[in-house]
Specification:
The structure holds two protein chains of two kinds. By secondary structure, chain A is α+β, with helices and mostly antiparallel strands. Helices cover 54% and strands 20% of the residues of chain A. In chain A, helix 1 packs across helix 2, helix 1 packs parallel to helix 3 and helix 2 packs across helix 3. The radius of gyration of chain A is 51 Å and the shape is rod-shaped. By secondary structure, chain B is mainly α. Classes of the chains: A alpha+beta, B mainly alpha.
Chain lengths: 260, 219
Amino acid sequence: MICKDAQNLINGYVDGELDLIRNLEIERHIQDCALCTQDYKNHQVLSNAIKTGSLYFKAPADLRRRIQLSLRKAAKAEAGRRMLPKWWFNIAAPMAAAAVILLALVPFLRGPSADDLLAGEVISSHVRSLMASHLADVSSSDQHTVKPWFAGKLNFSPPVEDLAKQGFPLIGGRLDYLEDRPVAALIYQRQKHFINLFIWPSGSDSDVETKTVLRQGYNLFHWTRSGMTFWAASDLNNAELQKFVQLVQNQTSSSTAIQS
Amino acid sequence: MDAAYNLPRWLTRNKHDAEGMVQEAYLGAIFDDIHGTDTPTRLKSLEKDKLTQFDQSILPHMNAAYNLARWLTRNEHDAEDMVQEAYLRAFKFFNTFHGLDGRSWLLSIVRNVCYTWLQQNRAQELTTMFDEETHSVNGDTSNPATLVLQSADQQIVRQAVEELPVEFREVVVLRDLEGFSYNEIAEVAKIPLGTVMSRLARARERLKQLLCNRLKMEC
């Protein structure tokens, strides 16, 4: 072994990191070579000076406390974070999902409104009246015949107007049954079309704006005025039925004005 | 109580089991109450387990962590910050620790934290391109008398080690102060095993030279 190789290996020798063969080789070389012996001794002295001295810095006590504290904080925060996904989410996520689904279904889940139900009833009555040749209980184009006919049959007096001059002749009157109560039904005609006008007390003083619906091919108009609820049903087109509705509304408001 | 019973009754579909669940839940609730925390018991024990394991395997190496950080930053205050940062990181990534050697694992984190800090705050120390060859010294000229080296007191040795380039300093600290094997040094310093020995050799040559300079001796 030459000195150059030996000097490279002396560190490993001092540190006890050489394999057995190299260990023996270097030991033999050191014995023979004064220069490398010196080198080896220097390494030992140096290593010992570092090892045995007070060069090792020990962690200050308050650092230890500070770290333990911050670790506990970190652990707590971690548990908090873990609690959200694993525990809280297991309950909250399905609940949120259910809420979303419910909200989406609300329009479908919500039952038909009172108006929707009533519209169905009105159309049924209208259709029934046309089917069974039972259009009118009292057939008269005279409002002064029709209106008194209801007296004694109903506990209210429906406004009855003949609109023949405006193209909607009165055909007659009929007793009908809507919203769990007997109602007045007036029949008008427009060419070949019949109009059923259902009238009953609304039970409150507040007026309701005119609304229109198209259901099963029938046009419906309904409104509440002067304590009376009106539903007009016909297979007339919407514009003509609206004209009729306006006529009825004008007549009833003028007649109530006269009454008051 | 009705609400507490209803849920387990439906979940277990069994009257007996449901009653057991409710009883356990009430005991758990009392336990939580005593300890004044809203963390569920199960999680609290998980968190406790991790802390306990960490306390046992990583916390005892705080001196080693501080020593390395202190030598790399050459500053008490910064060293403390490095150690604290390293411990928080170690805790965060504790699940990647497989329980073989807590000290090496922790020190490699400390080293990473310190090198990041050095790059940000002591860039010139790292940018003076570290070159093993230029920093090495010709072995023939650096063999002072053993007595000379023995005369160096602790203060001078300390100053000489501090003067070493950081890459030399860390292998000397890990080997001579921490007593790491070459394998462990290779792992912590992320260098090949062969490089460990040559770097240590050069570091020690340089150290000898620095000591001689400090002792005003011709070597």
